[in-house]
Amino acid sequence: MDGLLLGGIYLTLAMGFSMAYGVLHIIDFAVGEWIMLGAFLGFYFNKWTGLDPFLSLPLVFFFFAALGYVIQPILHRVMSGSMGRPVLMGLVFTFGLALIFSGLGQTIFGIFTHSIDTFVSGGSWSLEIGSFFISVPLVRLAGLIYAVAIIVVLSWLLKKTDFGLAVRAVAQNKEAASLMGVDVTKTASAVYAIYTGVSAMTGVFYGASLSFNAMMGPQLTVLAFFVVVLAGMGYLPGVPWAAFLLGFIQSFFLIYLNPAYTLLAVFGVLYTILLISPTGMFRKGI
Hints:
Elements: H1 2-24, H2 31-49, H3 57-79, H4 86-109, E1 124-129, E2 132-137, H5 138-160, H6 162-172, H7 174-179, H8 184-209, H9 217-231, H10 239-255, H11 262-276
Antiparallel strand pairs: 1-2
Helix pairs in contact: 1-5, 1-8, 1-9, 1-10, 2-3, 2-4, 2-8, 2-9, 3-4, 3-8, 5-6, 5-8, 6-8, 9-10, 10-11
């Protein structure tokens, strides 16, 4: 159960990351920093207003979506420069962005660890199955519900709307999509905005479920990268399975073995699967 709930957090952490790569071919090394900044905005929303941090989710989404919408054209300009290596240039740009956000976070918020208190913090839901008694923390259950909601909304957006049709067209062939009347620039900016907004909202749930500080970005980026690569780069349907597998591995080591070896086990699994299938465990990645 703990692995399932942790997997829900990692699912939302990686979903936007995978969508950004699948559509824009951006390997965003700043994903952990977007989550970190979202957690701090939710934390200070509660501190300044006294309202539940979950009420800050629309504010967090629109603030960081607007920031992502502004940054994406700059990122596009860097990637479409004369270097001839767009993916590498995007990686370098977002790595620099991560360093800037991390430095600003440590300067403004300090290096101390915080947690976010919500109306479900400390509560639990008990479930008895035969001789097994399971206690489910409500705050992690809320994170799992949020993850499922994000999947449903993104699936509907991509499959049932004109915007989703434009996004899928851009992902397949930007030139052909442009010739069919799709505004590739605005579509790309909107996708990146959705990615940054969803990632920042994930930070609120992460901070409520675990703890956070201004230096946690690189570790979260590593975990997001693990999920996306294991699922297959750009293959969204594989992300939930990879996220839950990561949650189960981490929970097993945290509860039964030595937590210090968690990352070793995670990347051992990743290395083994990629040896067998370089395009992810479903063999459908880019």
